[in-house]
């Protein structure tokens, strides 16, 4: 990070676009934010469609700058990736999510899993699998309680390096998920080159279920493909009962979305005050 600073990440250039300038400000703020503990994880449930039970919670990063308005991850994650800070931030997420899961296991939910979003930059590090192993050990968790979601954003510049980490993680028993499948940018190549366990269908794909006949025809074929690769299907962005029924009929094993539970700082949700 220091080296990148010298290379001019924070230097102002008049040619910079508005977006680049915003990103620059956000990046310098991020470093301080990590030191001031301004990050939090919120958790969104994933429901097992057979049993109806919550089987996994996805950790979603939140930044609450002191005295400011919350910054959405879609803005600060790319900045953290551009500056390299995503490595440290990702380590924090891993540690915090594992600690939370261990607490849930102790408080009567011993089979619960946690899903964590991981940047391609983290996966490309030669010590990534090892750092995951350490985080699991520290929290006293089985590797099978952890699912890592590879986000679509960014290039997988070093596929052999990522594949090496994938194999090590899979050998440990960690589940690996491909996020945002069908979001537009095709990540079919990733699916063919990396041994995923789980495929997360993007919310745009789910939303098109009721409106685009093509989606209706595509999804059963995808289901066949997924089951032949032994991939579990998770549907994201479920907002209506009709969508829930549609993905159930398609043979998705899990569903996640506002209909089933919004991301929240506390889980299980506290009973509403009377
Ligand atoms: P994602 O991994 O695809 O996460 C799902 C996003 O959809 C979340 O947005 C979630 O709040 C939102 N969502 C959940 N249910 C629904 C629904 O029913 N309808 C709609 N329209 N949206 C729904 P969020 O929390 O703003 O996160 C945005 C993205 O930021 C995530 O997308 C993920 O790519 C990234 N992200 C979040 N936390 C982390 C993290 O710890 N590390 C990394 N590398 N990326 C993260
Ligand atoms: Ca995700
Ligand atoms: Ca997603
Ligand atoms: Ca598997």
TrEMBL record:
* Chain ranges of the EAL domain: 23-274
The highest taxon in the source lineage is Bacteria
Protein name (database record): Diguanylate cyclase
